[in-house]
């Protein structure tokens, strides 16, 4: 088993498994020696001396009374062969650890009850939750704090950020809560999580913000708030509140060495991301992202010296910025005059710490928006302006597969499998194929259980290394009204998925061989 497991906190099935824990006490014996007592240091000039009045632990009673009516429990009926699962991260399989030898689960049409959390953001019944709580659901219901259960419609889903927007039709106005400013949240700040862990609706836990901007390699736009408030399975999609009663995050994942419950390391999607994604889902049902057109990489200290970059303000810290490795033809970056070896340091007034930081910032900008880019070239700081493009349009062959004459399409967005993508997915550098960057809701690919992060290695027995080749083979098969057989790589394991033009699907267990029991360090 892996040493760690990032786990979706979403409960599957109706059974509750209770575990009794025995606490063993221990005795600490200390022996005083001649060195016992206070320690004196000769030089105290750099000693940290915290200042400020002592503060009592806050009381959240009144806050919880006010916000709890807007927190809901969500129940989804999901086909077991399309389950997002709870282990191995946001998009892992239905078990919290790698499958043992020859134990790949067999495909099934059985309906599984999945439980999660959510919160109401408007009086007319819009509800925010996680994508993995409702992905593949044939039926979704929302239970309000007063016990009322309402059927819910999935307005839209975004796999890249693991967010979904639901709509219920209430008989009266619903109490709702406001999204706060996650950029204002600071490590050490008290936060409160409310949700439906293990089916126990309305559970309240508290803790502090441990860190911001966490990238846990679970998606291209990871930018999580890390918290130590206890978060468990079923908390997925629930709100994370600050003491002013505003939502600053959506609880999404936990780090669990055993794949079990909380160990005090939880992750929440920042409210600034939630606001942008939900607004688009509400208007169009899908998310449009900005596109710059650069392939960037991390800067090592040696690279920084070779590029004549200024030394970091704090000695020993990694160089900030994103080194441009290549620029796409006819892209906004090319029109701005960016070139390979440029180092992007600022984007629209925001400092860029890394390529991942740049990707998050660019994606959040609406296509057509004019932006200013700060960069260093040959040791000199420069600026350029350009209009951000549309990621879906710019990727061309990497976009959704085109409809065939019969109107059938697979419904996936494909991207090349480059060095950075292999690194993000934890794949060997010699892995071939094309990566699934998005899946269209309700499409044949979605119904088959294909997920963002899957690597398609062959279509109809023919190896594919570029999105254009994969699209061509898929279109040919579907135009001929023939099933499409895909060999995909998921979480280090190979499996086949067959998709028929009529939407029916079938999966085949992979021939895992002796490698199927290797550790998965997601």
Number of contiguous helices: 10
CATH H-level superfamily title of the domain at 290-392: PDZ domain
Largest sheet entry: 7 strands, antiparallel
- How much β-strand is present in the residues? 25-35%
Structural class: alpha+beta
Give the averaged pLDDT, no decimals.
76
What is the number of strand segments?
A: 29
Rg over alpha carbons? 25 Å
Spatial separation of the terminal alpha carbons: 11 Å
- So what's the overall shape? globular
CATH class of the domain at 290-392 equals Mainly Beta
CATH architecture tag of the domain at 290-392: Roll
Looking at how many chains there are and whether they match, the oligomeric state comes to single chain
Helix content: 10-25%
Stretches with pLDDT under 50, minimum 5 residues: 14-37, 84-108, 396-408, 504-522
Q: Can you describe what's shown?
A:
- It is an enzyme of class 3 (hydrolase).
- The protein has 522 residues and is of the alpha+beta class.
- Among the domains are: 189-284, Trypsin-like serine proteases (Thrombin, subunit H), CATH 2.40.10.10; 290-392, Pdz3 Domain, CATH 2.30.42; 412-499, PDZ domain (Pdz3 Domain, Roll).
- The chain is 14% helix and 31% strand.
- It is built from 10 helices and 29 strands.
- Strands 23, 24, 25, 26, 27, 28 and 29 form a 7-stranded antiparallel beta sheet that branches. A 6-stranded antiparallel barrel has the order 9-10-11-14-13-12.
